[in-house]
Amino acid sequence: MIYKQLIQLWKWLKFILMPNNTAMPSDVSGAEVDMYKIDDNRKLPGDLAMWFFILAELTVFAVFFIGFAVAENLNLTMFAEGKAQLHKVAGLVNTIALITSSYFVAISLHSMRENKDKQTISRLALALMFASVYVVLKLWEYQALFSQGIDIETNTFFTLYFLITAFHFMHILLGMVILLYMAINVYKGKYRDPETENEFSGFESGACYWHMVDLLWIILFPLIYVI
Amino acid sequence: MKAWQRFALSWGWLIILTFTSVAIGQYFQSASFNTLGFISIVMLIVAMKGQQIIDVFMELKHAPRLWRNIMLAYVIVIPVIITIIYV
Which residue in the set A8, A44, A96 is minimally distant from B18, CB to CB? Predict the structure, then answer.
């Protein structure tokens, strides 16, 4: 699987870096072919406005990530000492919770398309439950640091740590509100309007927002806890 | 392969990659290893996890190429920049 995924990433990079080479890779077959051909029928999940919002969010976090890396490079000892005081297991459990939550959101969209409303709601509830694990654990982490007398003013590391993780935490809370709103709308049957061009668009937008929050944590976790 | 199987496979792969990343971090923090190699591996794992989320969970694999390219570029360019900064 690792080989297959690396090959996939390499093919994509080659395709992007050599735009004049419109020929498809010779070893591409079957379902993969449509990935390389120009196809106007491809559909973006969710609303276009949500994708612009996602791009804006990703840009803001990119500045945070780069800022954190630059600051660490300038204060290696301080950042190493700061990271040693963080709870790595809590970070790992949070990562698993968010990935699992994202998984349940992805399969809830699938059951939504199959008109299984009850299943959709139960899967969204599971997604919210795993998101709650993240919230509780993150608050516990903050509390543990505060009880040691560590706060946002302790040093540059903790200023950036609290700033970035709290900003991400707010996105989690907003995402949970969106997931709850989606579940209520499914219950009320609001995604079943036959006059709407893409009746699941709102649901897809909410799901993509949640996956973006997960994606950000995927970068944040190794940057703060692992490296 | 059914949709839920595809998602489950992706979820399992993401969990494996997460544990691998943490294990590598634990191992190389105790051993003296060159920073470039260590950070490159961890950031490569970040790119692989990002690709899974974008293509499978976000379902961008069959979305307009521009959007897929922007998102995939993000999970490749940011880890590359981070790697360059650290080394």
Answer: A96
